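Hi everyone,

Forwarding the result from last night's run.
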Amino acid sequence: WAQFTSGFDTYLGNRSDSRFTLHTCEHWYQAFRGNAIVLSPGMFYPTPGVLGRSDVALGLALPYSCLRSLGLNIFLSLELTVIALTLVAYLLTYGLLRRMLGLSLPAACFGAAFFAFNSPKLALSYHCQLQFVAPLPIFFGCLIAAHGGTTGRRAFLWLSLAGLTLDLLVSTSFYLGWFCYFWCGLWLLLALLSGHGRSLLAIAARQPLAALGGLLVTALGLAPLCVAYLPVL
């Protein structure tokens, strides 16, 4: 409420995480313009190569940099980025529930609202990197599309897009990416143990090149993240 009634002059957050995310996004913007070294944020000068000491915030930095290039200041650019991505998360989740899973209109609206505006997400609104949940419905939508793919090429494209979307998620918010990997792996394990994963194995057996190709693209998409994180481990 204070954010809107102040004319966007007041921003959600505390004196640490919000400022850090803002600085990281501005660092990316300056790096895109050739004014900064990607792996060496200026706030840590003269220590080089420390971008991987926290969330890389790449997914936030891309729309943020577009807004900055239009002449908006650093605070308004990040505010509009978070607001827009929250709206996009709602619309994408609605599309997933309504179009791909066939839910009714009210169910899709409520489900999308619970995902995009849920209580834990709002309670942690000062952690800007945790607001980047829009890739999740894309990820699961791509997996569903790959499951129904009629050709190996189409399955490969959907699996590759799913992998790259997950790479962007973990390259923005390490927590969200890690938990997505964890829960998907746990679900896959339980599905295989219960016998419900046989259809997944059948798909992999029917289109092994598509499955292996999707995994390869996903691994290659993680290369930039490894460049940032491995040196500081």
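The CA atoms of residues 171 and 197 lie 29 Å apart.

Cheers,
N.
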